[in-house]
Each structure stands twice: as C-alpha cells, then as structure tokens.
UniProtKB/TrEMBL annotation:
Gene3D superfamilies: Phosphorylase Kinase, domain 1 (3.30.200.20), Transferase(Phosphotransferase) domain 1 (1.10.510.10). ATP binds at K127. It comes from Sesamum indicum (Oriental sesame). InterPro entries: Kinase-like_dom_sf (IPR011009), Plant_Ser_Thr_Prot_Kinase (IPR050823), Prot_kinase_dom (IPR000719), Protein_kinase_ATP_BS (IPR017441), Ser-Thr/Tyr_kinase_cat_dom (IPR001245), Ser/Thr_kinase_AS (IPR008271). Its EC number is 2.7.11.1. Keywords: ATP-binding, Cell membrane, Kinase, Membrane, Nucleotide-binding, Serine/threonine-protein kinase, Transferase. May be involved in plant defense signaling. This is non-specific serine/threonine protein kinase. The keyword Repressor does not apply. Residues 88-373 form the Protein kinase domain.
Length: 418
C-alpha cells in the first residue's frame, strides 16, 4: 500500500516471486491440480479426505521443522469457501490488504470441510482482489512455498481454491493478530506488549527465519516486517505471507538477482540499490523489526520531525551507547528489563543492520543471542509484574519523539503492498 517504486535488473528478464513455473489450471472444481518448479518444489492435491500436510499438523517432526515432499493441500471449491464465510459477509472480515480481503470461516477439524458457523475450527480465508497486479504470482508462491514448509514458527497453510478467476487461500487462524497491531495501534482492548513477550515474539520469528535459511532448499523470505508476524493465543510468533519468498543462491553464488520488491524501511540497502538478494538481506529486515520492538516506533513514519522519518537512519548511531538507552527504549516497558539486557538487544540490532551483508549474523546466531538475553536476571521491581504488560502504561512513545501511534505513511517497493 502507498507509494511504490521498483527496478528491473537486466539479469532477470522474467521476474517472478518464486522462480516457479505457472501452475496448470484444471477448470473442474475439486479435481487435482499440479504445481511444478522443475527444481524440486511441486504440489499435487485432491479434495478427497485429509492431505499429507493436514495430517502432518500434529506430527512431531514439524516441531523441529521439515520440508514436505509435496504440499498436497486441501482443495476447496469456491462454493465451499463461500459457505464457510456466510457468502463473504462484511461481518466476517478480519482485514484488508493489497492482495485482497481476509475473512474468518469455519471448517470441520478432521475433514477440513466447511462447517456450521461457530462449530469446528476457525480459519482465515484470504480472497484475491481481481485488480491486484501481483496477486497470481503471490498466490502461486504461497502455495508452492508455505504449502511445503512445516515449522512451529510458520503459519500453516491448510488449503486453497482456484476456480475460474477466483483465487483463495485457507490458513490456520491466529487469535492475537499481527505484531504490528500490538506495537502501534491505539486500541484500549490491546495492552502494550511487555519486555518478556517482545523477546518471546522476537525469538519465535527468528527461529522461523533460521529454519528457512538453513533448509535444504534455502529460502529467502524477502518481506520481513511487523505486519507479517502473526501471534496465536499464547503469543507464539509465526511468519506469514510468503508471496515474495524466493529460493536462495545455488552453485556457489552468494546472491540472486531479482526485481526489487518489499517494503520501505525494512528492505536491505544492498537489495534496494542493486537488486542483489542475499540470505542475510532477511537479517537486515529482522534488525528493523527488532528496533521497532525496542522503541515502540514504526520503521517509517512521516509524521515524525524531519530527520526522524526513517527509524534506522535516526537511531542507529545511538544503539552502541549505553548512556543513550533510556532515550530510545519504549517508555511502556520501562523497569521490565536490565540495562545489560537492553544494551545487548541494542547491540544485536546494530549487528543485524550492518551495511554489508557478510558482517550481519546468521539467524541461528540471532536466536542464540536472544535466548541469552531472555534468560538474564530481571530488575527486582519487575518480577511481580504481569508477563503481559506493564501496569504503568502511559501511552507514550520513547523519549526522543512521543509519536501518536497512528498507521504510518509506510510505502512499499513494487509488488509488496499486501
């Protein structure tokens, strides 16, 4: 959403979010459809019974993460999902993005078929906006990537629908919504996230990225940001929206060259400047989100004074300085962390935001450091506080600039407004 720009490197004459071939559509609803990458990612699914992926949701193997041989997702007809959402009624809407509208729906827990509203299992159903320019590529990428990836910190894709011009995706329902909502939206029903919860969320998201980066088929997520981190009922973080995901470099190459797509404020500088995409380009995006979590401020907000619009440009020089900690840490979590823990978190953020990709830590190392920070001794006065939020919430932002936490004018790079 917002203003966009893009560049088209000559080395990538046929830009694609996934480098996968176009799926072969079969017009008869409920029949199987094949997706083939020619390089290992493929899917074949049937509407009959449970898929391998659905059955694997409770499989212990998924706890450590695995790549399924085939997505084999549940195939829905358009009528199925129309019934699950009460004909896509407005009171079933969960949210609206550049891809389209997301509805809540209900399916049977065993068969995954539509069930009576209020019975069975609630799911999130994303329906493509026919006017979306990048919609089909992103839909295809989501099926091919997320349909095969199984990990506790990745949102589960349960099924899809492709019928005529209708493209839909069915996901597990994430009760607490996005990290973005909890950090920035002014809503009396949403309490500020505590220091402990912010660390829990950061660790979960980091584990998800680490799994993608170390998998056999190295995956670069490409659009890591607060709105793409969803939270379940226990505040476990799961990465969602794989529409821009891309297979990593192969054959000894250090990067892939691709069309610049992503979100202003989060995209790594080398990617924006050259179109060269590294695994550690994701690490930069993680650093931006970590900075947002420490400060409670958006990565990009034109409502802030001149010189403070871009959070990284503004605060990066302060991160190594212990005496500057209180000037940028979110006032809503004051007293919940030790200065040592905050300084280590700031130093980790700074390392993730290194200008040169090779100087950034791996996501596995990021996980290790965050876990060490989480294990640190808390200030005595904070030990009896709720693990959910500070009781001294005053609605204020970090001291450098007390921002009215409204949605920002956050722009997107080409194709990323989801």
């Amino acid at each position: 959403m917002g203003n966009c720009f893009g560049s088209e490197p000559a080395a990538d004459p046929k830009p694609s979010s996934t480098n996968l071939s176009t799926p072969t559509k079969q017009s008869t609803p409920g029949t199987s459809r094949d997706y083939s990458s020619g390089g290992g990612l493929s899917a074949t699914s049937s509407s009959a019974g449970l898929s391998r992926f659905s059955a694997a949701l409770s499989d212990d193997a998924c706890l450590a993460g695995e790549i399924l041989p085939i997505p084999n997702l549940k195939t829905y007809s358009f009528a199925d999902l129309r019934n699950a959402t009460r004909n896509f009624k407005s009171d079933m809407v969960l949210g609206v993005g550049g891809f389209g509208t997301v509805y809540k729906g209900w399916v049977d827990e065993k068969t995954l078929m539509p069930s009576k509203i209020g019975t069975g299992m609630m799911v999130a159903i994303k329906k493509l906006n026919p006017e979306s320019m990048q919609g089909f590529e992103e839909w295809q990428s989501e099926v091919n990537f997320l349909g095969r990836l199984c990990h506790p910190n990745l949102v589960k894709l349960l099924g899809y629908c492709w019928e005529d011009k209708e493209l839909l995706l069915v996901y597990e329902f994430m009760q607490k919504g996005s990290l973005e909502n909890h950090l920035f939206r002014r809503n009396a029903a949403i309490e500020p996230l505590s220091w402990d919860l912010r660390l829990k969320i950061a660790i979960g998201a980091a584990r998800g990225l680490a799994f993608l980066h170390t998998s056999d088929k190295q995956v670069i997520y490409r659009d890591f940001k607060a709105s793409n981190i969803l939270l379940d009922g226990s505040y476990n973080a799961k990465i969602s929206d794989f529409g821009l995901a891309k297979l990593g470099p192969s054959g000894g190459d250090s990067h892939v060259t691709t069309r610049v797509m992503g979100t202003y404020g989060y995209a790594a500088p080398e990617y924006v400047a050259t179109g060269h995409l590294y695994v550690k380009s994701d690490v930069y995006g993680f650093g931006v989100v970590l900075l947002e979590m420490l400060t409670g401020l958006r990565a990009l907000d034109t409502r802030r004074p001149s010189g403070q619009h871009n959070l990284v440009d503004w605060l990066k020089p302060l991160l190594p300085q212990r005496r500057k900690l209180k000037s940028y840490m979110d006032a809503r979590i004051e007293g919940q962390y030790s200065s040592k823990a905050a300084l280590q978190a700031s130093q980790l953020t700074l390392r993730c935001l290194e200008g040169e990709p090779r100087k950034r830590p791996s996501m596995k190392e990021v996980v290790d450091v965050l876990e060490q920070i989480a294990a640190m001794e808390k200030p005595r006065e904070s030990k009896n506080r709720s693990t959910h939020s500070s009781s001294q919430h005053n609605g204020q932002s970090p001291r450098p600039y007390r921002s009215p936490r409204h949605p920002s004018n956050q722009g997107t790079l080409t194709g990323a407004g989801r």
